[in-house]
Amino acid sequence: MVARPRRHQISLEAQLQQLTLFTDLDASTENLEQLGPIIKSLDEARQQDAFLRHLKSFVRDKDAEIEAVCDANHSEFVAAVDKLLKVRSGTVTLKHRIGELNQDVQAGGTSLANKKRQLLETQRTAANVNHAIGIIQTCLRVLDLANRVDELIQQNKYFSALRSLQELESVHLGRILHHDFAKTMLDGIPQMRNQIKTAVTSEMKEWLFQVRQKSRTVGQLALEAMEVRLKRWRIKAQRDPLLRLAKVNSAIELVVNERTEHNFVENEKVSIDFRPLYQCIHIYDALDLRQELQASYHEDRRAQANLLLNQGLSFDANPSSGGGAFPALLEEMVGFFLVEHHVISTTPAGFRAEAEVDDLWDTMCTRVCDIVSLALRDCKETKVYVFAKSSFQTFIQTLEGYSFPVTKLNALLLTLFERYAHLLRDRFSKDFQQAMSETQHQPMVVNSSDELNKVLSVCWLKPGDDEMLSKSKFPLSLPFSQTYPLCCMDIRNLVDQYYVFSDGFSFSQNHREIDEILKKSLDSLLIQQVSTAIRRSLDNTAAINLSQIAQIVVNAEHFNLACIELENLLASLRAPHGRGGKLRLDARYGGLVEDNDGISVGAFTSQC
């Protein structure tokens, strides 16, 4: 028989002490960790029942101890229990109150959370609203700036409008390009630029029209100023013979003459505001369209120039009444080119090329010369020629002072002088033929010293003849007939009118040509008219007697003397103009004398 293993007996007292030692009565949880090993050891020793009995005994002992303690402190215990109950009741009340407060806190927290959520939502909404307001304000600034551009255009502030448009395109629209209207506005900016260009161009066109209306006044003032300047220079030239060789616009005249500066485009009578042109140039430069503006301006001015020359040109036979349309044309041209000169001087370099203005000037000079020549082609009034020459010469000197070439215009003056000389020659021929047809070929008789002085003042006589005649008694029979003093007076007037007409011609070449024209005219008069008339009188010997033939011969001798004295007169008239030496007449060298001497001898012989 196998012996049973021996169980080790454990001390139940020690186990209970161990259990009570590690048991925390104040703990809210049971201490099962220490209970496990004890139960295990009891099970191994098979002392469970003994342990339970011992445990019950332990409990009874403890209860007895408690009762003993309670019996000794019964009143205090009861008081403590009462207090504990009160505390418990207060605790319950507090618990309920805490529950209520917790509910209130929970309710308040929920409300606060809701309000917090509402606040956050409101803040998000406010942020969105602020963002929207910012975008709207940006858009409004863009729209205001666009409206401002339109207002500036309406106020004719085109450069400010263009600058605002540039700011709109480069700064403001870039921030809102994600909006459709901004893209639409960006696409419309070229059209707005074109609107500015159209507006400024329209204003310049209006300015050109106003310039055209005011150009005549500008030219009139310039011509009047030149006339005053000419008169002042003539007075100084009369006082100082050395100044007679200098003409207006010469270096001497510019130094000696106290020249008054005139602003013909800005004064009391006329004011041309060039700001529209300057503004247009500035705008086109900003748009990089300078060449387009230059071409447009050039074509407009050329069209205005053509319009000037397409007007009808007329000359009034009475220049005192205004001279017809010719002075108006000259005033318009002077005003036109003074405006061009001002534009060249005040606009940016390269806008108005001097070559373009010179080409336009050359074209207009050519056309004016043709128009004037055509208008005067059938004119027989010398007064018209004198007036035309005077007006045209003032016109030439005015524009010559602004460095415009006047060679073609001077050539026209010489042409006018040739026609004028032809008219004077025809008029003299007519007067001389009438005088010859009315003469009786008898010596002229004067009855008083006044009559004699008038005759002597116009006739050319041999040295000493005037003194001898002055000492004679009246009535006095002069050696020549009445035809001679009449012819001398006409020749003097003709020569004077020649040089009055040629006064102011500024080139020595013109002077030589004028002298040549005068020489040919006088030779033609003396040889063809006087000589022919004398020959015709001698040929008609059947109607005249011997004394009349003798008188014709004497008249011819006096006409020969007149040729000599006429050369001296021409020399004296040419000297103030700086042209020395005599002007040799062909009539003096055989043309008049030989023909008539031969005819007179033959006629006289036949009468004998």
Automatic annotation (TrEMBL):
This is Related to secretory pathway protein (Exocyst complex protein Sec15). One of its GO terms (cellular component) is exocyst. Residues 408-587 form the Exocyst complex subunit EXOC6/Sec15 C-terminal domain. It comes from Melanopsichium pennsylvanicum 4. InterPro entries: EXOC6/Sec15, EXOC6/Sec15_C, EXOC6/Sec15_C_dom1, EXOC6_Sec15_N. Residues 54-222 form the Exocyst complex component EXOC6/Sec15 N-terminal domain. GO terms for biological process: Golgi to plasma membrane transport; intracellular protein transport; vesicle tethering involved in exocytosis. The lineage of its organism: Eukaryota, Fungi, Dikarya, Basidiomycota, Ustilaginomycotina. Coiled coil: none annotated. It holds the Pfam family Sec15_C.
